[in-house]
TrEMBL record, chain A:
Pfam family, one: DUF1806
Phylogenetic placement of the source organism: Bacteria, Bacillati, Bacillota, Bacilli, Bacillales
UniProt source species: Gracilibacillus salitolerans
Protein's name according to its UniProt entry: DUF1806 family protein
Automatic annotation (TrEMBL), chain B:
Signal peptide: none
Cofactors (names): Zn(2+)
Gene Ontology MF annotations: hydrolase activity, acting on carbon-nitrogen (but not peptide) bonds, in linear amides
Annotated PANTHER family: N-ACETYL-ALPHA-D-GLUCOSAMINYL L-MALATE DEACETYLASE 2-RELATED (PTHR12993:SF27), N-ACETYLGLUCOSAMINYL-PHOSPHATIDYLINOSITOL DE-N-ACETYLASE-RELATED (PTHR12993)
Gene3D superfamilies documented for this protein: LmbE-like
Organism domain of life: Bacteria
Protein name (record): Bacillithiol biosynthesis deacetylase BshB2
Length: 117, 218
């Protein structure tokens, strides 16, 4: 993955607008959060292979963290804290936010074919 | 009964951090060891530092790391094909049947797994519970011994001292090598030690040099 180059990422997101796509959306602070720090809460959520069509998608932010919003017919998909991305060999847009130690905090991925189960 | 140790954990690297010293001492005595590994750690959070894995490449990377670690330990590996973070939502009976299908063939003398309810990660608790249910499927006089590993913060006060405490200091080089085989995860797990210690192997030994288990009472 590479640091986000906003115009390039925006182009990739535009290309998949108004098409049937599969989404992987995830956020987590890890299964050990409250084990290592009693004051912390474990939290996380993921949805894999949600099939949607977005009318438009937009990347907003500066420098080290970006927000991505995808506008659906009757809803939204939103991710905050994204800082790296790549378009992989299957033409999937993989976006993620990592902390200083390389741990994943948030992921948003868009693909024209289902993600492997 | 001939000796055969079966290790049942859900994630690639659970065996390295939790039992690789104990496994090494069994292998040094020529006792075969088989690892039934539940998932490929698909949802792991450590993506390398600097990041080299993505959510989609992580399973393949961790599969290679797992195979390497099992080569280091010279043990047999069976990958069971569940998905990381979902084990607690599977049917415990079905998972137990699946585990039993292996145990029935391998006829282990000892099973090592997580202590359900004291293993912190939901996958650990669920897989440990299924492993114990699987062992219960043997007739009482054919049941292998089960060593259950508790890592919760409350295990000492709630369960007392573990009755098996293996000091694995003498084989720690092998344990460290096994942990290092899981490169994507080791970088993150060892980063705290690395930041605070000059000799990372010695500091890791202080942390992971004793492997403790509770013999399960059926």
């Amino acid at each position: 993955m590479e640091p986000i180059e906003i115009n390039q990422l925006q182009n990739h997101i535009d290309k998949l607008a108004n098409k049937e796509v599969y989404i992987h959306l995830e956020t987590t602070n890890g299964a050990y959060a409250s084990h290592f720090n009693q004051d912390a809460y474990n939290l996380g959520a993921f949805i894999r292979n949600a099939k949607v069509i977005y009318q438009r998608g937009k990347v907003v932010g500066t420098g080290t963290a970006y927000r991505v919003g995808l506008k659906l017919d009757i809803g939204w998909i939103y991710a905050e804290g994204v800082n790296q991305y790549e378009v992989d060999e299957h033409n999937r847009i993989l976006m993620a936010g990592h902390d200083r130690e390389g741990r994943l905090m948030v992921a948003l991925q868009i693909s024209e074919t289902p993600f492997q189960y | 009964m001939s000796e055969h140790v079966v290790v049942i954990y859900p994630h690639p690297d659970d065996e390295a951090f939790g039992a690789s010293g104990t496994i090494t001492t069994f292998r040094e005595k020529g006792i075969p060891v088989t690892y039934l590994c539940g998932t490929l750690g698909e949802m792991g959070r450590n993506m390398g530092n600097p990041t080299f894995a993505t959510r989609e490449t992580l399973p393949e990377i961790r599969k290679k790391e797992l195979i390497k670690a099992c080569e280091v330990l010279d043990i047999n590996l069976e990958m069971l094909g569940y998905r990381d973070k979902t084990l607690e939502f599977e049917s415990t009976e079905e998972v137990a049947e699946h585990l039993f299908s292996f145990l029935d063939k391998l006829k282990p003398s000892l099973v090592i797994t997580h202590y359900p309810g004291h293993a912190v990660h939901p996958d650990h608790d669920a897989f440990g519970a299924a492993a114990i249910k699987a062992v219960e499927m043997f007739p009482e006089n054919e049941r292998p011994t089960v060593w259950a590993q508790a890592i919760s913060r409350t295990h000492l006060e709630e369960l007392g001292e573990p009755d098996v405490q293996n000091d694995v200091g003498e084989v720690f080089t092998k344990k460290f090598e096994t942990i290092q085989a899981h490169k994507s995860q080791a970088d993150g797990m060892l980063s705290k030690v690395r930041n605070e210690a000059d000799d990372i192997v010695e500091a890791t030994k202080q942390w992971l040099g004793v492997e403790s288990f509770y013999t399960w009472n059926f």
